[in-house]
Amino acid sequence: MISASENTLKVAQQAFTHFQHGLATGAWQGFLDMLTEDFTFWFPLGKFHGWNQGKARAEEFFQYVSASFKNGLTLNLDRLTSNETTVIFEFRDEGTLLEKAYRNRVAVAFDVRGDKICGYREYFGSDGISS
Asked: Is 104 within a domain?
């Protein structure tokens, strides 16, 4: 029998694979399919600053991300940390943001319920060019 912690890690890693693909290509459906209907997310700035709720709002957010990074983002995972309900992925990303070179360090937390992601929180450096 798989433990709650093992299930959380498995589900979050699968979601992160879809998340990474979405950032690289703009194809978000695999990730969106893994979200609960009552999904909530927190983003640190801009149009989506603060708490947001629902899959429709999430789809709007991730399409906005793809529009901002038209050529996609590449990620290099540095580490992950997990417990029974949450997995945090720390990574470096790189791409072009609105025609300017972009590099940053990011941490995203996925909250897992069953085989879905029910929550997402994102934290990153404020200068957009961290290495």
From this structure: yes
Output the six-digit token pair for 29. 């459906």
Query: What distance in Å separates the CA atoms of residue 97 and residue 19, rounded to the nearest whole number?
Result: 18
Structural domain including 103 reads 4-124
- Domain of 100: which CATH number? 3.10.450.50
Specify whether the CB–CB gap between 108 and 88 falls below 8 A. yes
Quote the pLDDT of residue 131.
Answer: 47
Within 69-116, residue ranges assigned H as helices are none
pLDDT mean over 86-100:
92
Global pTM?
Answer: 0.91
Distance set, CA 92 to CA 21, 98, 103, 109 (Å): 15, 18, 7, 15
* Separation CA 96–CA 67 (nearest Å): 11
pLDDT of 80 strictly over 80: yes
> How far is Cα 43 from Cα 108, in angstroms, rounded to an integer?
10
Q: Which residue from 128, 12, 28 is spatially nearest to 80, judged by alpha carbons?
A: 12
